Model the fold of this input.
Amino acid sequence: MKKYATEFDIILDSEKVNLENLYLDKDNIKVTSIDRKAKTVRIEQLKKTELITLNNIYLDSLSKGRRGWNKKEIGFIIIDGILLTDKTTEEIKLDPNAIKDFRIQKGEDSKDSRIFRMDRDYLIITTK
Done:
């Protein structure tokens, strides 16, 4: 689908979206149709979900085992191996159901201190 993102309008449940900044739950997609003439891709979900932006992510809502995570302690966010910038986290929208796994990695446990600041934790998200 990403190959259509630059040339086609992407319509998710009647709303135009930017597919390059969107992570959807693949199991929730009802139908996808491509209209090459109109240059549109329509995606309908089985159940409409509220997408969250990563700069507003509430970690306590994702975690069942630990409470009290402070958003300010998270220095970096990595999704599917891609390190996101501060600007990107404002643009990315994520379906919470698309998250397969997530974990908080302690900065002091990082093997490469040149990339990660030792005083900040980072969030690693794997999607379905």
